[in-house]
Every structure is written in C-alpha cells, then in structure tokens.
Amino acid sequence: MCGILGAVNATINATVLDQIKHRGPDASGAKSFEINQNSVHLLHRRLSIVDVSEAGSQPMFADDRKACITFNGEIYNHLDLKEKLPNITFNGHSDTETIVNYFRTFGIYNTLKDLNGIFAFAYLDVENEFLYLARDRFGVKPLYYYFHNNQLLFSSEIRPLRAFLNPAIDKGSLMSSLRMRYTPSPSTIYTNIYKVEPGQLLVFNLKGNLSLIKSYFVATPKSLGTKKGDYRNLVKEYGNLFEKAVERQLMADVEVGILLSGGVDSALVAAIAKQRSKTGIKAFTVGFEGEHDNIDEIEYAKQTAAIIGLEHYTKKINSLRFLDSVEAIAKIVEEPIGTTSIIPMYFLSELAASKVKVVLSGQGADEPLGGYNKYKGLPLLEKSRLFLPLLPLTKSVRFIYNRNERFRRLISSMQYADDVSSLVEFNAISSVSEVTNLMTAASRKVYRNALLRQQNAFKQIWKERTPEQASTSNLFLYYDLRTSLADDLLMYTDKISMHFSLECRVPILDNDLIDFIESLKSGYKFNSKRGKIIHKDFAKEYLPTTITERKKLNFKSPTEAWFRQQKNDIEKVFTSDKAFSTLFDMNAVMKLLSNHQNGRNLEKQIFLLLSIYYILKQNTEL
Question: Which GO terms describe its cellular component (predicted)?
C-alpha cells in the first residue's frame, strides 16, 4: 500500500512527491522515459508490507525491462498468478513483481480480470508505447488525473495535482456533494481533476500526441439476484468464500491488526483472522466521552475481544478540539464529505497506526447485503413505485416528509419510474431546491443548472452500466456498492488511514465473495425486517448470538449533539471567511443551523458545509 504519482509532458519532482510521503514513508523512487517526444515520469512512495526488502522497491520494471509500473494496493491472489509465470526470473516475492510480469506476459486486459485485490496503478508498456491507469473494481484505492493540452498528471491524492494546476471549484460538483454528501465519480470538487472510476481502465496512446480511450475492465452482469437453492448449502458456500477472503488478506510480512466495532461484521472478520493467523491479533476501538451510550461501541467491542481472544486497545474521544479535528480531516480527505463517521475513523486510524502497519476492517458488508435501515424500505419502493408517482402528499404526510430524512428519501424515490433517477432521490440528503437555496440569490440559477447537468451525466453512466435483468432491490445494492461506498466511505477510509501510514484492507469486498452475494436472490440477503441475513447466519458458526443479534449501532460520532453545543462557534467560522460568505447565502446557512438547534437533525448538511469551508480556506492559502 503506497502512494503513486506521475506525469506525461509535465515537470514533476521529488518536492511534489513529498506531498504524499505519508502514504509511503519507508522509501521513494522515480523513473523517467522518452517515448516519441513524450516525456513520461513514474514516481512512488513506499509503505513496505509485502517483501520489505529492496527487491520490492518501485517503480518496478518487468523482467525483460520493456514495461514498468508504479503500483498502490495489494493483489491477494498473486501467488496463484505467479505459478503461471515459470519463465520469469524473480528478484523478490512482492505482488508488484508478479503483476508487472503478468501484464507483460498476458496483456493488460487479460490480467485485470484475474486480479483479486485492491489497487490503483500506472503501467507503462514501453515496447508498445501505451500508458495505462486503472482502479480496482470497487474503488477501494483512489486515483486522480488531469488530462489537457497534451499533458497528463495522475496521483493517489489530489494535493499534488492541485499544487500544479491551482484549479477552481467545480459548481456542479459542489452542488452534488451538498445533495448526495459526496462527489460522485468521475468528478471531483475541482474543475479538470477527475477520478478514475471503480473498475475503469484509461489507455493513453504515446505514439504521437496523447490520446485517451476509456473502458471498464469488469463487464456489467446481464442479471442480478437469480441464484437460489437449499439455504443451508448457500450458507456453507458463503462461509467458505468468506473464510478464504479473510485468509487471503492476512498476506503480509508485517503484523496485521483489526479495526473492531461492536457489530457482527468486524467481529466475524476478527474471529476468522484470529483462527488463521500465525500470530496474535491486535484490535482497536474508539468511543466517546460524555453521554453517548447509544453510539459508543467500546463496551460491546471489549466483550467481543474477550470472546475471540484479541489484544484490545481503546481510546475515548471528547469534543474539546472538535472543530480543529474537522479542519484537519477536511484537508486530509480533500473533498466534501457529509458522513460523520469520518471523525472516529480519524482517531481510530491514529490509534491503530501506533501499533501496526496493516489492519483488516469489517467495512463493505452493508451495501451488498442490505444491512442499512434504509434498505428495509426497498420492498415497499419496488411495489409502490408502479402506482405512486406524482401523487399529491397529504398535509400529515408532508409534515413527516419535511421532518424525517429517511421518509423523505423513500417518498421522493417513488416519484421516478427509472431506477437510476429513483436511486438519486433514495440517497440524496437534500432536495435540489434545498441546496440551491443555500447559494446567494444572484448565483442560484447558475448553480442549479450545473447540478442538473452533473446529475444527468451520473444517471447516463449508470443507465449504461445497469444489468438487464434485476429487481430494484438488487439494483440499488449493486449501485451503492460502486458509487456511494466507493466515493464516500472507502474514499475517506483510504485517505484517513494512509494519512497515518496505515494500510486498511476490506476482506468483505473480495471479488469471489461479492460475485456470490450479488448472484443471490434478495430474500437471502435482506427483507423489510432484517438485513445481512445469510451473513449473520454464517457468523453463528464463529460467534455467540449475543454478538450476531446485537442491535446495529452504526459507526458514527455524536456530531448531532456537538453541533448544537458549539452552534455559536460554528456561526463564527462561517462568517469569518469572505470566500465562503460570497458563495453562500449566510441567512440560509444560519437558518439551517437554527433548524438543527430546534430539533431537526441536519448534522450531515452542517458537516458538509464545514468541509467546504475548509477546502475553500485551503485554496486561498495556496
């Protein structure tokens, strides 16, 4: 797990590389090439996990030195792939050396479909004069790029590109983040800086002036959710795949720990890891000081750690330096995020990094298995959307609609016949009018139009990537896994953990396991009363029912209360910066804070505004 950086026809140096030193404090490297008057630079910062010797250094050449790679991630099945390369002379045992030679032997397209892991890389085929950028199929590892006027820059993080370009804030992206609580790929908050999408391959032709071809290396399945059979056999098959996934991801030449919540997901990963690991497993949990028992997971996690036999470390967070931590997090994550679980992740990563270099996480179960409470409304949505569109809301329903975000999202999603438009409403934390009214009166029309253009572009991408045969319930899980999970939870997990030079792995997003989950009929995964059904039933083989049947706490922070306690301080923050107050209607912002103070839970919206404030502030400090 590392940081990658590179450029074609642009000057880039070690000083710029140092901006992502936190991603790889152990070593650095750079290689340069001249190909048809195109200057190509590949740079790398290394966090040594597999083959910590010099043999694992990057950028790395293939055995015949006709190709080179700068790689971020882990390929968990690389030993299986290595067996198909009997004629290669290997200098070490890293997965990077396996894949650069696998690419060279079998080609980029044949190799990508065989990789089971998390990755973002730049692969230079010197002989055939192509440069390839790719990101793993679920978007665990980020990769950003700028391509304009025969110049290409790419990086694991935005900051090196931002320093080179000094870009403006993108209006459509700003509005999308306010509405969706994250910025959907391929956009970022900045103009002309883009994300490589999950499962996407970018091919740059170096034979003359740079040209770009975009494609997806994972084919869209024709159907979802058709598999059924004897339930006991399905649970057994699920369990076998889950165990293999965890065992694969113990691959490391350093100690591996676990981020332990109070729930079943991380507990199951921990139990299997403890059984398969050759060493003990350290576990890490954070909680909160004060009266936050409804979301504090430390006591539950202590019970889990004791049952499994883990060496357990905990830390309590208080609100004294809350706004300072929000500013630090906004700078680390680089894009607006409205998910307040990012705060405990910051302190959890800091705690874990003090003891280990690699951790396993239970992240990634809720989206494919229907674990969130919002999914309980999908069976109703699927039936009601056929006859409810555009029905007028009664006064009593309108009251609930305006006060309850989850209810508003469900009712709004029923107004659209097509799945992608319905999905946008199902996940939007604010309506188009709500986010538009936050802008100054003179600019509302411009920002509204920019938002609608970007939403239409997002819808077009996913209409083209939609399986032909799938229920709405299965489709929404499929979409969320590749959109909100990738661009929200996985994005901030990567940025935060790597800020502390900590590699975070997600065994539940194993390719084989997800393929199986997505093949199942939705009833095996969730219904209107239960989520993660097959997952919890398998977990009973490792864990007592006191863990498998615990009420879901969610991984979150007490920001709802903290924002009310610190309302005056937040008001001062928002009114102290000219760039922010010029962009936003301050009366509308103050009203939002007052509404939260008076009982509406608007913590996501406030957290987003704080993120945007600190991003704007950071730009003016360039």
Answer: cytosol
Query: Catalytic annotation on 68?
Result: no
259 is in an annotated binding site: yes
Is 356 annotated to bind ligand? Answer: no
| C-alpha triplet 97, 102, 103: angle, nearest 5° | 105
Residue whose token pair is 């509204």: 448
Alpha helix locations (H) across 511-585? 511-519, 533-539, 545-548, 559-565, 567-575, 578-583
362 is in an annotated binding site: yes
Active-site annotation holder among 1, 2, 8, 272: 2
**pTM as predicted:** 0.95
- Strand-by-strand arrangement of the 151-155 sheet: 27-35, 38-46, 2-8, 151-155, 144-148, 194-195
Please write the tens of the pLDDT for every residue from 231-265: 999 999 999 999 999 999 999 999 999 999 989 99
Which residue in 267, 280, 306 sits closest to 539, CA to CA? 267
Chain segment 139-157, per-residue pLDDT in tens = 999 999 999 999 999 999 9
Closest CA to 245 of 14, 506, 430: 506
**Is 481 one of the annotated binding-site residues?**
no
What domains are defined for the chain?
A: 2-158+193-216 (3.60.20.10), 231-368+491-548 (3.40.50.620)
Tell me: is residue 95 an annotated ligand-binding position.
yes
483 contact partners, CB below 8 Å, separation of at least 6: 184, 185, 462
Residue 390 pLDDT grade (very low, low, confident, very high; cuts 50, 70, 90): very low
Distance CA(505)–CA(193), nearest Å, equals 26
